[in-house]
Amino acid sequence: MLNRKIFIKTFGCQMNEYDSNRIYDSVSKLGFVKTTNQSNADCYILNTCHIRDKAKEKVYHEIGRVKKLYRDKKKPILVVAGCVAQAENEEMIKREPYIDIILGPQSYHKVNDLLKNHIVSLKQEETEFDTISKFGYFDKIKNNNDKISAFLTIQEGCDKFCHFCVVPYTRGPEYSRPFNKIILEAEQLIKNGVKEITLLGQNVNAYSYTENSKEYRISHLINHLDQFSELERIRYTTSHPRDMTDDLIECYSSSHKLMPFVHLPIQSGSNKMLELMNRKHTVDHYLKIYERLKKINKEIEFSSDFIIGYPGETQQDFEDTLNLIKKIKFINSFSFIFSPRPGTKASTLDMLDKNLAKERLTLIQEKLFNNQKEKNKSLENSIVDVLVENKIEKQNKLFGRNKYISPVIFNGSESNIGKVVKVKVQNSNQNTLFGVLDKKKKAA
Ligand code: SF4
Q1: Which of 356, 375, 394 is the last residue of a domain?
Q2: Do 187 and 115 share a structural domain?
Q3: 165 lines ligand 1 (CB under 6 A)
Q4: Domain count, the chain
Q5: Please, what is the angle between helix 246-254 and helix 218-226, to 10°?
Q6: How far, in Å, CA of 48 to CA of 56, rounded?
Q7: Which of 50, 113, 269, 360 could form a disulfide with 321 if both were Cys (CB 3.0 to 4.6 A apart)?
Q8: 167 within ligand 1 shell (Cβ under 6 A)
Q9: Are 62 and 156 in the same domain?
Q10: CB-side exposure of 31: number of CA atoms within 13 Å?
């Protein structure tokens, strides 16, 4: 199979991005070489996401695109991976014979065998929940990611069963990787030149691994990573309010590298809605976390996820969410109208009027976007720390992110890539800060 080209199109969350990179690491053992040209691959993988609306139909639409791209060429081996593959399994091959392999997220360790078998022209489906074998396999393969900012999966799956969510069905029960394997992978990433590690998990702060009667939590990982001198920044996502334990909160004062930016989904500002969603936390609990973290460092900012128009949401519930956004001033947040996922409890409930839900979403987004604009505006004329990730070729400028993960674009030489530099912010818009390198002043 020497020098066959492989292209992976990744949809959805950071975990899918991490998974796609690990699949590349695995198939390189078979001689597959990564290509960025999607119309010239021997193997084409669609790494799918089931979170958004009409996920399944979007995958069939994508397959239609691939068919067109290869109409006059040799057909690539088409693999559908990810959460849609898990949810739909062999049904997909029946409906779309162009698909060769169906690969669920817990079966990625089998990708090489499946590709080898495919050479003898077998259609295959692999959607077992086999998380331990998957990570056992990938632990033996070097993580080749050498970007400045890299993801590192520490935990997968979820036991919480929020009524709207498919993750417990597509990614399976909570599983935490062994502590020492995560540290080894982090060391490898740092050796590759990575300067920022984002610890990943569907319930990342539920991470719990016990060895010799000692329980390791995400706080242990953060404190350990903090000691690697060549690492500049630590982040983690996505977390659940119920798992914001004291030891994790304490990291915000003990760690020098943990960024003061907390992405903590709340979904609604109404306790009634949180109960209907089966979120297992209250608004009050969330506010206490916010207050404790602000006490540790008033510069900490929050971002969140919001579901608008969930079945049963009254005008009062909606206003409670607006009030919470006023109080916490969330930045960089995500908000969506509820859309039912097949197989979840919420999929059987009566939907709210579509137009009403749309109106509410517009109002929520106005507030969230405004918070974002105001935050960026407040940084104008100040000096911010920026981890430089790459050069934007067309603009001949550098791209990096501040501690709140906002993009920063500025002039500077390529020798700054991989460094934390000080940038004087000159202007901004909702999404981005623009500035110039400042070598003299201290960063705010
Ligand atoms: S905690 Fe997160 S991943 Fe788990 S069911 Fe709820 S929304 Fe889904």
Answers
A1: 375
A2: no
A3: yes
A4: 3
A5: 10
A6: 9
A7: 269
A8: yes
A9: no
A10: 6
Please tell me whether residues 285 and 328 are part of one structural domain. yes
Angle between helices 14-27 and 131-139 (to 10 degrees): 60
Residues 278 and 387 in one domain: no
Which value, to the nearest 10 degrees, does the dihedral of the CA atoms of residues 85, 141, 181, 145 take? -80
Alpha helices in 161-263 (DSSP H): 167-170, 179-192, 218-226, 246-254
Question: Which residues constitute the domain of residue 401?
Answer: 383-437
399 within some domain:
yes
Question: Which residues lie closer than 8 Å to 284 by C-beta, 6 or more apart?
Answer: 271
Distance CA 442, CA 275 (A): 46
Where among 65, 100, 130 does a domain terminate?
130
Residue 443 lies in a domain: no
Could you list the beta-strand ranges (E) of 127-225.
Answer: 149-153, 155-156, 175-176, 196-200, 208-211, 214-217
What pLDDT, on the 0 to 100 scale, is given for residue 430?
95
Tokens at 430, concatenated: 């909702």
pLDDT for the residue 119: 66
Q: Same domain, yes or no, for 226 and 331?
A: yes
29: burial class by Cβ within 10 Å (0-12, 13-18, 19+)? exposed
- Note the pLDDT of residue 294: 98
Residue type, 207: Y
Name residues of the chain where pLDDT drops below 50. Answer: 442-444
How many A from CA of 202 to the centre of ligand 1? 7
**pLDDT for 383-442, tens place per residue?**
999 999 999 988 889 999 999 999 999 998 899 999 999 999 999 999 999 999 987 654
CA angle at 190 for the pair 184 and 192, rounded to the nearest 5°: 105
* Tokens matching residue 140: 């033996």
Regarding whether 362 and 229 lie in a shared domain, the answer is yes
Task: Summarize pLDDT for 90-131 with one digit per residue, the tens.
Answer: 788 888 999 999 999 999 999 999 998 886 555 677 777 777
**247 CA → ligand 1 middle, Å:** 22
Q: Are 89 and 168 in the same domain?
A: no
Predicted confidence at residue 118, as pLDDT, reads 83
How many whole angstroms from 330 Cα to the centroid of ligand 1? 20
384 sits in which H/E element = strand 383-392
Q: Does this model's pTM top 0.85? A: yes
Q: Which atom of ligand 1 is found nearest the CA of 202?
A: 3
Residue 338, token pair as written in the block: 């509820």
User: Among the atoms of ligand 1, which is closest to the Cα of residue 159?
Assistant: 4
| Residue 171 in contact with ligand 1 by CB distance below 6 A | no
pLDDT of residue 442: 46
